[in-house]
Amino acid sequence: MGEKISNLKKILSTSNQIIAFTGAGFSAESGISTFRGAGGLWSKYDPSIYANINYFNQDPTYYWNFFKDERYPVIKKAKPNDGHYALVKLEKQGKLYRIITQNIDGLHQIAGSSDVIELHGNTRKIFCMSCDKTYSIDDIYKRLKYELPPRCSCGGVLKPGTVLFGEPLPQYALDMAMLAAQNCDMCLVLGSSLVVYPAASIPRIAQKKGAVLVIINIDPTPLDDIANLVIHESASKILSRLIG
Ligand code: OAD
């Protein structure tokens, strides 16, 4: 492990155009469950029901119950962890160029990172599927006790601003992420299983374009074989040890 850490230190010191690619494992130390891996949400909830746009369109009450009982209470309580703050520091040092996240919890921005691309949206923003009017997450949460699914003043169904399976990623975010992948000199994957596409193509593209690929994730990922350095450890602990 000591050798891996000193390799990572060396890579960080020679890189000046770093992108961080974060996943659910990066928010684990903030108390938010991952989807896969030990105790992952998808072992309790079937994603084809609770995270699929076709199912949501048929019956949004499943999703909203999941949001009310499982997601909102956890996300509401969550605070950025040492890893989030380490990335803020790396940005201030002028080394971190952009964060590309699959997380929908907004914790990078709350920590103070200024350049965050959210590939899978943000659950703190609620919007109407008919007229696009937006609502505050806290106001909607209060209504969930007596109104399922919650509706807009126009009568349309409300939906959190997260991308569900079967929905396209926000095009602008995807374009910006692709551009960043093509222009970075290091791609630092932090807490992602790297199994969900198109997001997981970002580290591959970065490496193909010449960036050094480093993966810090507790469980093995499908890109471990091609990465320049792999550390199976807590991403926020390793980062805060090096940068914090
Ligand atoms: P996953 O839940 O698929 O993977 C999280 C990874 O984090 C696992 O491989 C764990 O081993 C690892 N892990 C857990 N704790 C960690 C820690 N403290 N430090 C480092 N690694 C840790 O999460 P994502 O890859 O983000 O999308 O999942 C991608 C997408 O799948 C999500 O955005 C979500 C989900 O379904 C949608 O819902 C569209």
List the helices and strands and how they pair.
Elements: H1 2-14, E1 18-22, H2 47-50, H3 53-58, H4 60-77, H5 82-92, E2 96-101, H6 107-111, E3 116-118, E4 121-128, E5 134-136, H7 137-143, E6 158-162, H8 171-183, E7 186-190, H9 201-208, E8 212-216, E9 229-231, H10 235-242
Parallel strand pairs: 1-2, 1-7, 2-3, 7-8, 8-9
Antiparallel strand pairs: 4-5, 4-6
The structure holds 2'-O-acetyl adenosine-5-diphosphoribose.
2'-O-acetyl adenosine-5-diphosphoribose is lined by residues 23-25, 28-29, 34-37, 40, 47, 51, 102, 120, 163, 165, 191-193, 196, 217-219, 234-235.
State the major sheet. Answer: 6 strands, parallel
Q: Strand portion, in percent?
A: 15-25%
Strand order of the largest sheet: 3-2-1-7-8-9
Number of strands: 9
Q: Give the helices and strands as they follow along the chain.
A: HEHHHHEHEEEHEHEHEEH
Total number of helical segments? Answer: 10
Which regions are unreliable across 5 or more consecutive residues at pLDDT < 50?
none
Give the fraction of residues assigned to helices: 25-40%
Shape: elongated
Determine the mean pLDDT: 96
End-to-end Cα distance, whole Å, is 19 Å
Radius of gyration using CA atoms only:
18 Å
The multimeric state of the shown protein is single chain
Global structural class: alpha/beta
Ligand list: 2'-O-acetyl adenosine-5-diphosphoribose
